Amino acid sequence: MVEAQDDQMHEDTPSSGGFWGTYGQKIMIGGIAAYLLLLFIGVIAELFDIQSILDWWIWRPPGKGPAGPPN
User: Which end of the chain has fewer CB atoms at under 10 Å, N or C?
Assistant: First the structure.
């Protein structure tokens, strides 16, 4: 009976893997979710040719410069 209680105590204790061991899976899932959201926004903007979204810094080609009216 003492061994059964001892096993239950070990299951309830948090893992001692540090920060990454504790939150790594949640961080990776959040990163994948953010990537998929940006991918979805980019695809929709490209399909419907929404230029205001395509001028965001993340989709702007290198060297294009900041968005805005031409001088």
Answer: C
